[in-house]
Amino acid sequence: MAGELEGSKSLSGLLSGLAQEAFHGHQGITEELLRSQLYPEVSLEEFRPFLAKMRGILKSIASADMDFNQLEAFLTAQTKKQGGITSDQAAVISKFWKSHKTKIRESLMNQSRWDSGLRGLSWRIDGKSQSRHSAQIHTPVAIMELEIGKSGQESEFLCLEFDEVKVNQLLKKLSEVEESISTLMQPA
Amino acid sequence: MEQKREGERLLQSICSPLKCWSKMKGKPAVPHLPSTSIIHLLVDFQWKLGMAVSSDSCRSLKYPYVAVLLKVADHSGQVKSKSFEMTIPQFQNFYRQFKEIAAVIETV
Question: Which residues in B lie closer than 8 A to residue A107 (C-beta atoms)?
Answer without folding.
Answer: none
